[in-house]
Amino acid sequence: MRLAVDLKGESLITVQRYLCERCNRFFSHPYLGKGRYGFDVKCEAVELYYDTRGSYRRVMNALHRRIGVKPSHVQIFRWMDELGENCKDAIQVARELHPRWSRCLGLDSKVLKVSGLERYLLLAADLGTQDAVNFALVERENYDVFSRFLRQIKREVRYAPRIIVTDLDPAWFKAIHHVYLRVPVQGCVVHMERIVDRFMPKRNRTMKQEELKTLIRRLLYASSLVEAHQSLREIKNRRDEWMDDGSRQAINSIIAHRKVLTTHHKVPDSFRDNNITESIIDKVEMKLKMIRGFKKMNCARNSLKLAIMHYRFSPFLSSRNGNNGKSPLMLAGVNTSDIDWITYSQRENQSQM
User: pLDDT tens digit string along 311-324?
Assistant: First the structure.
């Protein structure tokens, strides 16, 4: 056994040493470079990394100031990767903590670069609690990938949505109808408005197009289904007033998606947009940027697992909905007051590593 350094800089924690029968040398597992550090030191490094905007080098310097020991930035990366690899997934968290979700499911994706190649983060969020239900890092976006992702949410996470909100990707719609046949689907009105803005760019928009944009917004953000139908009828009845290509494309897109843009009016206490799902992605965006430097998919996944676990346990600090001081898991009815998120995140007891 070999002594390891804890947070106080004291050699109190033991690390198992092994003897290789082939070379007759001693080693420990996992290898962490020069020196051996206790689990609490690793936890401190992780907290510094996710609670600040610090890089691995800044975390290295902060640990040196705090405990007088300076592990290398590569060593800290290895700790993060080790803890991320051993981190529980969304399925395990759901089975253990039993969050009580609003059952309004938001689906979104984001392009990431791993080893210079485009990869995709799929995120499923409960919109009422702002909790992350599931995520996946995949090589492509298509119906088969989306279907597998949704089947995992249905069968293993056991999530039963009242409504699903997503962007207007036909592959998402097809997968949703295959896995959740009878669940109503809402197309995100913010995504729809972005599509309209591409057809009628604001910098080149004419006064007549501004008038059309006002009508479209009245439809997208209507306070009732009756008001939405009135706005849609007005757009249809006046469509000949707009003859330019951009306006006609915007009108055709609105008419084609009219049903999914008004679904939320039929489901009480639901959502018309996917802003919350996008916000969750934004909150881990600071660390997602680091993934672009990773060379392997498994390293990117490990970092994401820790980042999303940290998000789920972290209290909101600037919420507009009066949720300051509450984490997403707390909003889902989970008492997290006595749970250390890093220790809990580990599938196996790492305290003696």
Answer: 999 998 877 777 88
